[in-house]
Amino acid sequence: MIQISGQTYQWGDPIVIAALIAAAVVFLILVLLIMAVRAAGRSAQMAAPLSQQMQILGSHVQQLGAGQEQLRGGLQMVSDTQANAQTQLIQTMEARLASVQQQMQDRLADNAMKSARSLTDMQERMSMSLHGSSKQTTASLTLLQERLAVIDKAQDNITKLSGDVLGLQDILSNKQTRGAFGEIQLTDIVTKALPSDSYSLQATLSNGKRADCLIHLPNPPGPIVIDSKFPLEAYEALRNAKTDYALKDAVAKMKVSVKAHIKAISEKYIVEGETADGALMFLPSEAVYAELHSNFPELIREGFAARVWIVSPTTCMATLNTMRAILKDARMREQAGAIRKELGLLHGDVERLVTRVGNLDRHFGQARKDVDEILISSEKTAKRAGRLHNFDFEELAKDTGEPSVVPLTAPDLK
Asked: Would the pTM of this model clear 0.70, i.e. be above it?
């Protein structure tokens, strides 16, 4: 480092390098000058050229001094410029630092405000969430209470149903109540399937026997009886049989019970000339009906032979629907005369309608003809009006038979 006039320069600075080169040149010139003075004393013949060279060298030295002076001024100017630049740079840095500091303060203030707002919003959301959670908890508890109430009610229904099942078992264990159960089920099916005037419940026949239901079918086949039977003891013995002996005994009981029911219905409820040539035995249990058809086909055939048809609740409904179709067909036959009379009246009405439509068509034809004539007259009128508008008097004269030229009189100028 070199300090000149209070300024510090580095050895690598171009100004310092130029100054060092100039000093080296000056030192070299001085060395040459000393050598030239020594050589002047040795050789007098070279004094004149040496003097000239000295003069030239003096002028160069003067030029070098002027250049050194200019270099010094340039160094001073560079030093001043650098000092000014440093001052401006310091001022700029201070201004920028102040601006950055202000921006930092503003940002910190904004961040503080945003943080305060975010904290407030978070508190509000947490408050709303807590409020919503409390509401949901209350709603969940309410719903839980409602479900518990439903469960309690279902438990009560189950308890009641258990009591009903026990009651049903008590009913089915007694023959009289079991018969009443079958009659009630038969009554429910019949009332749903047939019109009220097409059957009689607990009807008494001419032989004094009372049937559970009598369907008033037309002849043929005639009124048909439906009687309810329920061989529950034999069926339960069959289901509960654990040994071969118990199974054979239960099968025998089932056959005896069903045959007895078939015989009773055939003898009591098939009356020649009063009822149909057959009757229905209603089993109020689908399980018993399926057991008979699966394992006792001979009983079904024996019922066919005795003209007693065994039905379950499902097949009874299908049979009653067929009977309803028969009743509907019979009633339609009864009303055939009235229907034929109404058809005759309808035919007369249709003939009168055809006649009136023909008259109306003739009126429309006459009106259409009158309209066509009116259209022809209107077209002629329109053409004549157009000719008058265009002063085509010659064409008008041809149409009317008048002279073809219409004389024009000269205007009277007097």
From this structure: no
